[in-house]
Design goal:
By secondary structure, the chain is α/β, with parallel strands linked by helices. It contains 9 helices and 10 strands. Strand 6 (124-128), helix 6 and strand 7 (151-155) form a beta-alpha-beta unit.
Length: 238
């Protein structure tokens, strides 16, 4: 039977400071919880509502609908909620391409970008310290389970870019057309903040400014950062 302390813990994990304090995060949905288990992440506990499930989730605790509404971050809880230990951050190594994010704040954007990394086989995602927390419930929902397969690390991005020996490409509105830019087999792709782009502090370390050409009427101010990331990663892999 679920205890008051468990309920208090799960509710508290909706806030970043408590996720950091406890080293735990919440994942919802049978697919996501199952993929985290398959990836070897350690669960603290898993709650289910007693409904039918398509796979074995191991040791679970059954709770009622009222409790589920209380602990869930979703308007319509979907019957499976897991509390997991955060995996240790993977060491950033120079191999293949790495995606770096400068102050991406929108949870939906970060979640989509994590899915894109999974799709395009980008194993390393490096985030500035002021990028939204990857364990934010809205980020996790947007990843659709891809967070289990992408190594994510929060770093002092200026120090990281200063020391890295790979070529660094930054996305800008006025950069060189990506379609005509020769791309190496490995490098760093840096994407900027939704409103302000790449900060001036980080621009000093960029070797090549690239852009996505616009073919329609010049009425759209810019592309969404997740959309732009998808196009640039496709070009890198192509």
């Amino acid at each position: 039977m679920v205890t008051k302390n468990q309920i208090k813990l799960v509710v508290g994990l909706k806030q970043k400071k408590y996720r950091i304090e406890h080293g735990l995060f919440v994942a919802e949905g049978e697919k996501m919880v199952g993929e985290l288990l398959d990836a070897g992440l350690l669960p603290q506990f898993i709650f289910v509502d007693g409904g039918p499930r398509g796979r074995d989730l191991g040791e679970v605790e059954e709770v009622g609908e009222g409790i589920f509404r209380q602990i869930s971050s979703l308007k319509r809880p979907n019957g499976v909620l897991g509390v997991f230990h955060m995996p240790p951050a993977k060491e950033v190594v120079g191999a293949d391409w790495t995606l770096a994010l400068d102050a991406v704040r929108d949870p939906g954007n970060l979640g989509t970008i994590i899915r894109l990394c999974d799709w395009f086989g980008i194993q390393q995602l490096v985030c500035s310290m002021d990028t939204v927390d990857c364990y934010n419930p809205k980020v996790l929902q947007a990843t659709m389970g891809s967070i289990a397969r992408v190594g994510i690390r929060y770093v002092d991005l200026a120090a990281y870019l200063k020391d890295v020996e790979l070529p660094i490409y930054g996305a800008f509105m006025d950069g060189e057309n990506i379609h005509g830019t020769p791309l190496p087999g490995e490098g760093i792709l840096l994407m900027g903040n939704e409103a302000h782009g790449i900060s001036k502090e980080l621009q000093a370390w960029i070797g090549e400014r690239i852009s996505i050409p616009q073919y329609g009427r010049p009425t759209a101010e810019s592309l969404n950062v997740a959309t732009a990331t998808a196009i640039l990663l496709n070009e890198i892999r192509r």
